[in-house]
Amino acid sequence: MTGDKGNKLARALPGSSLDDRLGTDAKLDSSSQKRIGDQLRAMYDELMQQPVPDRFKELLDQLDKKKDGAQ
């Protein structure tokens, strides 16, 4: 995902307009919901492709050993 896509989603509201909108329920149209969902899935899929760092594997092993010893 590129930074340009994120910039298109962000919009600044004038201060007085923001105060008026804080009391209303926030709602997104279906196309915005779909776009956000697609972007979140793309980011999550990319994250899941990354290898688990060795240090995290060591910590998980230590937790498993403690868990097995406590039972």
Automatic annotation (TrEMBL):
Domain Anti-sigma factor NepR: 33-66
Record's compositionally biased regions (Basic and acidic residues): 18-28
Annotated region described as Disordered, given as residue ranges: 1-35
One Pfam family recorded for the sequence: NepR
Protein name: Anti-sigma factor NepR domain-containing protein
